[in-house]
Amino acid sequence: MEQVAAVAVIDARGVVTGWSEGARLLTGYPADEAVGRPAAELLTDALPTRTDGAWTGPVVVRHRDGGPVAVTVTACPVLGPGGRPAGLTVTALPEPGTEPTLAGLAFEQASMSMSVFDPLQRYLRVNGEACRVMGVPEEVLLGRHFPETVEDAQHSRGFNYHLRQVAETGHPVRYESYTGAPALNRDHAWSIEMWPVRGDDGDVRGVALAAFDSSDQYWARQRLALVNEAAAAIGTTLDVARTAEELIELLVPRYADFASVDLLEWVLGADEPPRVPDGDIVLRRVAHGSVTEGTPEAAVHLGETDIYPAATPPAQALRLGRAVLSQAGEPAFMRYVAERNQRAPQGLRHRLGAHSVLAVPLRARGTTLGVAVAVRIAHPDDYGDDDVVLAEEVASRAAVCIDNARRFARERTTALALQHSLLPRGLPGQAAVDVAHRYLPSGSTAGIGGDWFDVIPLSGSRVALVVGDVVGHGIPSTATMGRLCTAVRTLADVDLPPDELLTHLDDLVTHLAAYDAEGERDAAELGATCLYAVYDPVTRRLAVASAGHPAPAVVLPDGAARLIGMTPGPPLGVGGLPFEATELELPEGSVVALYTDGLIEDRDRDVDRATAELCSALTAPTATLDALCDTVLKAVLPEEPGDDVALLLARTRALGADQIATWDVSPDPAEVAATRQAATERLTAWGLEETAFVTELVVSELVTNAIRYGEPPIQLRLIRDRTLICEVSDGSSTSPHLRRAHAFDEGGRGLLLVAQLTQRWGSRQTTRGKTIWCEQSLSPLF
Predict the structure, then answer these.
(1) What are the pLDDT digits (tens) for 216-240?
(2) What sign results for the dihedral spanned by CA atoms 244, 246, 247, 248?
(3) Whether the model pTM is above 0.85
(4) pLDDT tens, position by position, 486-502
(5) Helix, strand or coil for residue 208?
(6) Per-position DSSP letters for 87-140, written without gaps between them
(7) Burial class of 356 by CB neighbour count within 10 A (0 to 12, 13 to 18, 19+)
(8) DSSP state of 658
(9) Cis bond leading into 424, ω under 30°?
């Protein structure tokens, strides 16, 4: 072993004539201060007088800072010409275990690892803490190169590189490292500072370093980073299973060798949370992960249920509502591992070495949802109190995200059920149009929207086509959708024109918004758009009005597709602005497409381009309207729509002239019989003799009422469709109504008779007065 010694040369006069680097390090005197001075000035006592020349003994040297330094001196005489004594060569080594100077004591007793190296990376001094870390006494290290004392590893090469850089450049270095040490059984975090040691001439004479064990601070930062990462990494979706998987991905491998998330059964359903049972607990495995591929440690497969006995850590954590820590050797730990091995013996070899289990309940808003379990197998450290605090913090955040996902799933299921109950399941029988429809609920985190559509049979074989969209998402929007859908059906039953119907609907929404605003709800939630169209198969005319809704598209039989040019009105709820209806005549076989904005609008899409894609898709040759619906959705929609989509396609039909009979009636009671006779003859021509009796009565009553109470012009029209429709129009706008006739009244029973004899009846206002109509059911042949 190479020894580093202090060497001085003293001439016969007792004056120092030579001074080594070791002497400088030992005493603090540089060579230019020591050479030329009497040696006695550097000693607290005189050198012993020896007659034999060479000698060895203890000497106390005066350090440059004034403190004494105990050394062991070996003196050898230097002979001059003739063999006469010419001086002494003195070699001094510090006495082991002694450090008389205050600076030396501070160096030796420092709580951090401190060392001094020469420019060639050889040890010159090592304090007690450094010896403890290295696991050897100082004399084993002194004079040896650093790489000779450690294993050849990346962190060791990096350490030596920094030593060399400081010696060569003279610039200090500060860095952090997470490495092991020869005497430590696991990696530690170190904050290391190296700085050059310069002589009076400014040259680098060595490199000093101090290494502080910052493992506690390092792990505290790691725990804080894990908590911060949990806030960003957990809950990126509103899916319960995916949220549980994100928790596992956060824990494995840096916090656990194996981790699992088990939830109570009700969390995955729509039930209300029950009380956590006192005994055995049944949980369903939602997610797990491991440092070993395939997660062979898992005793329960994903999706399976497991019964946790009351004494196991997961069951205790659920019951107590706090984290439960269990270590190897404890009875609860041994029972838990034995139960896992018994349930899944094939994973036994992967569980060998398991030494610490931490079970943390997943609790959010005062409700227990399940439990997360973390197990350490290869990781050398047991879980401690700091890990419990960290696990509870991360589990708390994960539980809130899982509860949010559960609530979203429950609200989505409720909103879907409510919406499906409000949307038409089977479209009503009518002959004006063939229809097909699609409704796609949104899969976004915003929730189910308020899109709806409807097909409403009207009098005179006409049909109303409706599509609408309520602002917002979730159950409130779905409930508002239900109110508007009901309101539209009610107003349609009054047989209002499209623009008038939207005006009444706008008033309704305005009143609802005002009412809900008084109840401290957001009135904007009641905003909506609606498109209402009426198609008449007799005239082949389509009347359509919009309240802030996209214009429908129409495909003519020749294959030409375009948007219907119309003036859109304001959205419902704005109030005070008019709506304008647009009318156009359509050839039989035209296809009208009504849709909500989710089909063509998205923040990443161009509306004009999407509209062009819609018109192009509508012209695709398909066998049925249902197939055309699928074609349109596939061509126009992105892979993940951001909003609900409703699509309603209607192919128009037309009633031929042979299905309609019209008579102008003079306002003379004598005309009633002739009109009745003409109607009977037409029924015979249509082969509807079985309806003649009822029709004669109905025609007589309605025509008589029109002559008696109405105004010219009076007209009778019969329509043979799926039902037999009888309409009587006159120029009066007074609406008829049923009344109860008393026993001796001579009249008042006409409309009551009509209502009893027909399937349904009603009246509608027209631009020239009113029309009273009624329908009779026909044979299925028609």
Answers:
(1) 787 777 778 888 888 888 888 888 9
(2) positive
(3) no
(4) 889 899 988 889 999 99
(5) strand
(6) EEEEEEEEPTT---SHHHHHHHH-SSEEEEE-TTSBEEEE-HHHHHHHTS-HHH
(7) buried
(8) G
(9) no
